[in-house]
């Protein structure tokens, strides 16, 4: 007895399925060599990766290079990822690693991207003009407050709050002790809170 062959999906149907897939599923498929799943995963997080790298390096040119290097590393290292559902944080850690590698290898170009946004708005906010305006104002104030922080504090905050890195990873990136990393992060949070409250 023969089984009926499953109908082949059109490219549009396949793309729609990938767009609807979770990060974890895309990561598992990409780890198995599915290039379209990898492209979908990368496209989904590219703007956040770029904004994160821009904030870390203060340079569009260096951020672009860091993201490009990170994308190659992510594709190569995906088969070693043991928790596919946590792929977003793992990708951000690779971006930070590549950004710091670049900063160590050359003096960054001064070209801060004022349009880079650290966090992406939920769809519900994007559909509500009042909430969109409030969120845009908050993001503008956050960018200004971050720019006013000393470099180590800003980098420590971004590595922890955006990249989800541990104190040990932050210390390694910044070339300081874990105790110093905790201190930089605590001061960054205090300064950001004070600045944000002053603009209310």
Structure description:
- This protein is mainly alpha-helical and about 200 residues long.
- The protein has 10 helices and no strands.
- Helix 3 runs antiparallel to helix 4 (about 60-75) and helix 3 crosses helix 5 (about 85-105).
- The longest helix is centred in the N-terminal third of the chain and has 23 residues, at about 35-55.
- The radius of gyration is 19 Å and the shape is globular.
- The relative contact order is 0.10.
- Residues about 1-10 and about 110-125 have low confidence and may be disordered.
CA radius of gyration is 19 Å
- Judged by helices, strands and strand pairing, the structural class is mainly alpha
Shape: globular
Task: Please give the alpha-carbon distance between the first and last residues.
Answer: 73 Å
What is the overall pLDDT average? 80
Helix content: over 70%
Low-confidence stretches: 1-9, 108-127
Please give the largest β-sheet: none
Number of strands: 0
| DSSP helical segment count | 10
Order of helices and strands: HHHHHHHHHH
Strand composition percent? under 5%
Please describe the structure with a list of short key phrases separated by commas or semicolons.
about 200 residues; mainly alpha; 10 helices; about 70% helix
Helices and strands in order, then pairings?
Blueprint: H1 11-20, H2 23-31, H3 35-57, H4 60-77, H5 87-105, H6 123-127, H7 129-148, H8 151-161, H9 167-174, H10 178-198
Helix pairs in contact: 2-3, 3-4, 3-5, 4-5, 7-10, 8-9, 8-10, 9-10
Q: Quick recap of the structure?
A:
By secondary structure, this protein is mostly helical. It is 72% helix and 0% strand.
């Amino acid at each position: 007895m023969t089984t009926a062959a499953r109908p082949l999906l059109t490219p549009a149907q396949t793309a729609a399925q990938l767009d609807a897939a979770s990060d974890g599923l895309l990561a598992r498929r990409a780890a198995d060599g599915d290039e379209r799943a990898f492209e979908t995963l990368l496209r989904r997080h590219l703007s956040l990766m770029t904004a994160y790298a821009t904030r870390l390096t203060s340079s569009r040119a260096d951020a672009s290079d860091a993201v490009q290097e990170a994308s190659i590393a992510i594709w190569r290292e995906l088969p070693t990822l043991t928790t596919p559902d946590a792929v977003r944080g793992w990708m951000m850690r690779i971006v930070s690693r590549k950004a710091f590698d670049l900063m160590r290898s050359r003096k960054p170009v001064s070209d801060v991207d004022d349009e880079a946004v650290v966090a992406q708005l939920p769809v519900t906010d994007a559909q509500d003009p009042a909430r969109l305006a409030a969120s845009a104002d908050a993001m503008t104030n956050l960018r200004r407050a971050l720019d006013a922080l000393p470099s180590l504090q800003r980098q420590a905050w971004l590595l922890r709050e955006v990249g989800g890195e541990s104190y040990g990873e932050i210390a390694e990136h910044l070339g300081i002790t874990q105790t110093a990393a905790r201190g930089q992060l605590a001061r960054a949070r205090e300064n950001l809170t004070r600045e944000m409250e002053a603009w209310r």
